[in-house]
Amino acid sequence: MSDFNRRDLLKAGLGGAAVLAGPGIVPVRAAEWTNVPEPNASIRVLRWKQFIQAEFDKFAEQTKKFSEKTGVKVKLEAESWEDIRPKAAVAANVGAGPDLIIGTLDDPHKFPDKLIDVTDVADYLGSKYGGWYPVAERYGKKGNGWIAIPQGATGGCLNYRVSHMKAAGFEEFPKDTAGFLKLCQALKKNNTPAGFALGHATGDANGWCQWALWAFGGKVVNEKNEVVIDSPETIAALEYVKQLYATFIPGVLSWNDSNNNKAFLNGELSLTLNGISIWTVGKTSSDPKQQEIAKDMDHAPMPIGPVGVPTEQQNVLVAYGYKHSKYPKAVKEYIKFMWDKENYDAWEVASNGYVSPPLPAYNDNPVWTSDPKITPYRDCLKRCRDNGYAGDLGYASAAVMGDFVVVDMFAEAASGSATPQQAAARAAERAKRYYQV
């Protein structure tokens, strides 16, 4: 899942409805779209709370245009990622609540029988725009049908201060884990430390901890969904992160997804994993100090570990509608409208590239090359593994992620509250509670 080729794209593109031509993807045929919203439809949409105000403003503007075009009334609400997860589960269990949720990762795989079949939406978008990234298809499909439509990923890249990196003796950002550790150690020595969330941060903590586990060959489960996290490869990852943790700013054990943003823009950090929001907020800030920090920033993909391939975990956003909705056709029409390239592109520009697209055809958006600092975020889903790797997505994979099993394992080993061996054994027992039910 860390890369893709022409065969992958044609497979994900629904029967070869697209071909590659030059650097882009040229659609040949779009699936017919015959859906018509129910009369007098009204839907409630719950999505993730914004980190970039312009992104949400454009999303709300596009929603208003949808209502004006179709007559469908939309009540738009926003909650944090952490708050959406339990509300999504409650809605599935009680059969009431939002008609449509735009949440994270494989949460819809916890309750697929409660969700609207959106295969027709996926077929339409996939055939019109040349196919989905394979990892996007993994998140959207259950069996032969689609239960969710990937919106993209709040792409995570390494955010770093260029001047501090150079002062630490590096002219360019390290591309492997060994060089990455040396950089962090040098930054710590210069009192310009790194900092990575080790609290229950849905995007940031899961992102870098899963990366570290996979980079050294560890994984929660194998292809048969057997728990294999207590392994020599996992121990190697834990030993590595224990060394990294020694270079971090104090307090990361309790960080959520907003703490590193604040610390970076306060000048307390030189290196962290984050979306493009730190740079965007900094460069548009009225605070001269934050503007200077943004000018001194750049972004890089996560380093390659001993396994020799990209092993990134990204906070993939997914839209899913509930069968309890009185207006399922309106739900599908809303998704189709918001994902149509013209609307998606305008939203992407407003967000300054905050969401890495799920369809490679969307990579031609000028925002990705408008500034070289944005470009690394374009290909996040190309470098991404799904969080159920190497097994299946479903209740167990979602529960392990939602319970922060991997994050807690790294936090215990890094902080010294458990040895790497103890932390791995405890993580295995926790994972088995979900995979062996």
From TrEMBL:
Family in the record: Belongs to the bacterial solute-binding protein 1 family.
Keywords on record: Periplasm, Signal, Transport
GO CC list: periplasmic space
Pfam families on file: SBP_bac_8 (PF13416)
Compartments where located: Periplasm
Protein's name according to its UniProt entry: ABC transporter substrate-binding protein
UniProt xrefs under InterPro entries: Bact_solute-bd_prot1, SBP, TAT_signal
